[in-house]
Amino acid sequence: MPELPEVETIRRQLEDIIVGKTIGKVTVLASKNIKLDPENLIGRRVVGLHRQAKVLLIKLDNNHSLVFHFKMTGQLIYEKDSQRVRGGHPTADWYKPLPVKATKLIIEFIDGGKLYYNDQRGFGWVEDLPNDKLAERLKNFSLIDPLSPQFTWEYLAKICRSSRRPIKLTIMNQKELGGVGNIYANDSLWLARIHPLQPSNTLSDKEIKHLHQALIQAIQEGLKYNGATISTYLDTKGKKGEYQQHFKVYSRAGQKCLRNDGGVIKVIRVGGRRTFFCPVCQKLRV
Fold first, then answer.
1. Domain containing 27 — which CATH number?
2. Is 166 in the same domain as 84?
3. Cβ neighbours around 180 below 10 Å, total
4. Which of 4-18, 89-103, 173-187, 231-245 shows the lowest per-residue confidence on average (mean pLDDT)?
5. Least crowded by CB within 10 Å, which of 7, 212, 221, 286?
6. pLDDT, tens only, 202-217
7. Number of folded domains in the chain?
8. What is residue 109's three-state secondary structure?
9. Residues 6+ positions from 85 with CB-CB distance below 8 Å
C-alpha cells in the first residue's frame, strides 16, 4: 500500500500534468467502490490536487473533488500519445496496453490524455464528493500528518498518553495521525530507539520528542527518495522510488543493526503486520 511519501510524490507529479485539463468523457468499467455519475464530470476542469493522509483528491472547478483511496492495490496511470506516467501499487499492468482487466475507471480529457484507475483486488475506492462533504467522509483520515505544521511533539504526546496500545499501532492510527504506514512506522521507531511493542502511555517526554523528530525524518527521507520501490514501484515519471535502499530496519530481518551495536534485526507481528526492530537499541521496558 502506498504510504504518505508515495502518495505525496504521486500528487506532486500528477499536479504538473493534469491541472488545467478539462474532462471530456468518463467510463466506469466496474461499479464496485466507484461512486460517481459520469455525466456530472463532463466539462469539469481540474483545478488542483490535494492529499489527506494517504487519500488523493483531484479538485474540480464545480466545488467537487474526486477522492481516491488506493488501499492495497490501487494505481493511477496517465497516458497521452507515447507518454505514460504511473503511480500507486506496482504491477505488470503499468506496462501493458490500457485498459487492462484491473481497470475500474477511465477519465478522458479533451486534449486526448487519459487517466486510468486500476485496482486488482478491488479494495480501493473512488468517489465524487462536494467539497463541503469531504470532512465527514474523510473523518477517519487525520488532517495532521508528519508534514503538517500542527504536528508538534505536544500533539504526539497527547496521542500517546491517551492510549495503552503498542506505540507502533498508535502512530499508524490514521484517524489521529495521517499517512504513516508500516514502512515508515518501523523506521521511525528505530530512529527513536523505541521498541514497537512499548505501551504508548509509558513513553517519557524525551522519548516522545525523539519519536516526533524521527517521524518527520523518515517521511522527509521517503519524499527525498521518491518513496520506496517494493517489487517494481515507479513514480509517475517512471522513476523508481529509492527509499528501499535506505531502510533502517524495515525488511532487514537477520541483518546487522545499522548502528553496529551487535544487534541483529528481528521480525515479529504487531497488529497483523510484520514489524522489524533491533533488540539491542530498541529494548522493551516493563
1. 3.20.190.10
2. no
3. 25
4. 231-245
5. 286
6. 999 999 999 999 999 9
7. 2
8. strand
9. 13, 14, 17, 77, 78, 79, 236, 237, 238
